[in-house]
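=== RUN LOG ===
request id: a7f3
mode: sequence -> structure
chains: 1
length: 261
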Amino acid sequence: MPSSTETQLGEVPLPEKFSDPEWETRVNLAAAFRVAYHYGWNRTINNHISARIPGEPDHFVMNPTNLGWNEMTASCLIKAHVDGTILTDTELSLAPAGQNFHSAVLDAKRHLQCVFHIHPADGVVVSALKDGLMFADQSACALYGMVAYHDFEGIASAADEGPRIVKDLGDHMVLIMRNHGLMTVGRTIGEAFAYMQRLVMACETQVKLLSTGAEINQVPVEILEHTRQQMTARTEGQPYGEQAWPAIVRLADRLDPGYRD
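=== RESULT ===
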């Protein structure tokens, strides 16, 4: 019996139909979806991760609207131009909310490869707090100085919101979309994934701390900055999260190697 993905997609394209860089991008992006689902970051057909194809700066791949993140495979991802034109011959589609601001970020920030957007419960809680994200523990220090905010404008389906999201993101790697959710970007898929992992953990820690009702010990600004610099130095000039990414892919393989189809 065919899987639900096969039922909706029909004949699965063979890797030979894609260039090597595109196929590698598709495989890595599908791995990100599967592990994000495993971590519980998204259990719906909503939210999106997009990735620019190396050597094709105007083209990216992204998840279709009607498949769950646990169903994502390398071949089912949709290829599009940053102007919004769908390049994949498929009956599946991209959600306007995801397509509009993902394409805007990738078009404006040519040094980036990946845009990652989710609505995890604790992330939404923090996005709705007036003071935003706290840097209350060592892990959160990795994000200090890298977090920007974008005010809620309703469902992000309007094409003209994209430039405002780009402006608010600026040179940061993390964007908290107020009363909405979380977004990270990266020079690689692994980097965007690693920033999101840190961000989700920071939000979870913050919500637990606030739930105690006890006074929180604030980390001095100079220590926040010092710790972030220490963590940055450990990457040895590589994109953040690159050392951990192979382990994420191995986890995806153990969960279900079918994502590589």
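=== NOTES ===
The CA atoms of residues 9 and 76 lie 7 Å apart.
Residues 1-13 have pLDDT under 50 and may be disordered.
=== END ===
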